[in-house]
Amino acid sequence: MKARLPQGYGGGGASNLQQIARQAQKLQEQMAQTTQELEEKEYTASSGGDAVRATVTGKMEVKSVEIKPEVVDPEDVEMLSDLILAAVNEALRSAANDKTEQMEKISGGLNVPGFF
């Protein structure tokens, strides 16, 4: 006696595999394009009531740090350092969050190792 698969199962093995491979390739191309677009974007954040502004790229590189002259106090360099760190870290978080959101939109929340 032969076992039979329910209708709709089996029979399309090779064509189903090719379709999955095409979908995976399309997904990979979309992710590569989105990654390139995100790397070209800039993210700016500020701290200390806009006393320090930091701009980073989507490649997670610091592009600029702007400091208002009135916050430069030779007696309190530590405060200025803290403001710079806060602004840079917030800008980097914005870039990372944007990348995560964009990739989740493409993948539908699917976590595929090696894609991002």
From TrEMBL:
Which Pfam families does the entry link to?
YbaB_DNA_bd
For whether the record's keyword set contains Calcium, the answer is: no
Gene3D superfamilies, A to Z: Nucleoid-associated protein YbaB-like domain
Q: Would you say which domain of life the source belongs to?
A: Bacteria
Principal localization reads: cytoplasm
Q: Where in the cell is it found?
A: Cytoplasm, Nucleoid
Keyword DNA-binding on this protein? yes
Coiled-coil positions: 17-44
Which keywords does this chain's UniProt record carry? Coiled coil, Cytoplasm, DNA-binding
Q: GO CC terms on record?
A: bacterial nucleoid; cytosol
GO MF term (any one): DNA binding
Protein family according to the UniProt entry: Belongs to the YbaB/EbfC family.
Tell me how this protein assembles. Homodimer.
Name the job this protein performs: Binds to DNA and alters its conformation. May be involved in regulation of gene expression, nucleoid organization and DNA protection.
Which named protein is this?
Nucleoid-associated protein CAFE_20450
Q: List the lineage, top down.
A: Bacteria, Bacillati, Bacillota, Clostridia, Eubacteriales
